[in-house]
Amino acid sequence: MARSPNERTAKTQVVRLGGREVVTEGLNLNFWADISHRCMTASWPAFIGGAATVFVAFNAFFAFFYWIGDQPISNVPGGAYIDYLYFSIETLSTAGYGDMHPQTHYGHFVATVELFTGIFSMSVMTGLVFARFSRPRARLLFAENPVISDHEGERTLMIRLANERHNIISNANARLWLFKNIVSKEGQPLRRFYELPLSRNESPALALSWTLFHVIDEASPLYGLNAEDLGANNIALVVVVSGYDVVAAQTVHARKSYDYPDIRIGHHYAEILDTTEDGRLRVDYGRFHETLED
């Protein structure tokens, strides 16, 4: 079937949702349409590199207008473009060293426009940097593999996590979701999600490690499934943990997703807690991700 002109011009993108890559088509989203979100989600090297590129581009733009004027700036030897570029950097950043300054109405006009642009851009940049630093982030370490083993005499799905900061996250709350492929009665393939009940989904003070337990009984979507069934249904797990960071005085969130190859059936976690000779609690994070066969 031939595509319409709008469909042919729509951009194809590959986006990452958790650990999964998704190809999207037919969405014409301009780069500048959500620039704030792009600035907040970009990595620090990309953010700093983008800010530096914009800074250089702005200065090169205004330096060109100084350069084509009739000696708009004083103390510019020979009227070289690079000198106007230096003056533009001083003006845009509001540094104003004073050795070069506008001396014509044209120069004052361009400098006025650039000063306004500099004040505006510096305000935006300050806000973006503050927002990136002030975002509450939880430093939670999740085990690389969920395990399914017997616990308290029942078949149980277990996921271990730990607080890397070793501070107190009070009223920590965890929720566990399962995603699977199903086919509706009409034969339409669907992706359904189910919340898996946890034996204890709250912790009054998350400081070290915490293991989440979901009992696989007759009511569980995992009941009776083996490793082949997990792959056939394209099973995925998503853990969401939130709580109040008493040091940052903010609510923090963390998320971890697992695909079906990550789930180890018939394994249990290696023990990481013991006591020292003087009676203190010891946590061995070197074995945090280690699993052992039953």
From TrEMBL:
PANTHER family: INWARD RECTIFIER POTASSIUM CHANNEL, INWARDLY RECTIFYING POTASSIUM CHANNEL 1, ISOFORM F. InterPro entries: Ig_E-set, IRK_C, K_chnl_dom, K_chnl_inward-rec_Kir, K_chnl_inward-rec_Kir_cyto. Keywords: Ion channel, Ion transport, Membrane, Potassium, Potassium transport, Transmembrane, Transmembrane helix, Transport, Voltage-gated channel. One of its GO terms (molecular function) is inward rectifier potassium channel activity. The chain crosses the membrane at residues 46-68, 109-131. It is a multi-pass membrane protein. It comes from Bradyrhizobium lablabi. GO terms for biological process: potassium ion import across plasma membrane; regulation of monoatomic ion transmembrane transport. Residues 54-133 form the Potassium channel domain. This is Inward rectifier potassium channel. GO terms for cellular component: monoatomic ion channel complex; plasma membrane.
